[in-house]
Hints:
Number of helices: 5
Number of strands: 2
Number of domains: 1
Low-confidence stretches: none
Structural class: mainly alpha
Amino acid sequence: MKRIKLNPNEILTTKDFPVHSLNTLKIYFKICKENLESVLPPTPVIPFSVGLPLLSRKDKKSKEELKDKAEHFKDAKFFETVEDKTKRMVKEKVIPKYMINYYEGLR
Length: 107
């Protein structure tokens, strides 16, 4: 398996609020703030409902289909980038203040 690092503006996520697990967000925040991302397992970046049917096929066509579907869903109203979701969570103050302060200090 090839591992790559994606930027927050390259990852699509759902627009749901609040985050499913604030405790998990706190753990990931601390790991990333301390530059320890290497301890994290690989994370799928598309919905399972889109990717799972394609996993049984390993050919080039399935990879192209996956890219096409990701491009198609890019502008869907129920998805947004991780970068956009972070900005929205900061603006709407639905995450802890120390995370907001850290994020605002990066800009």
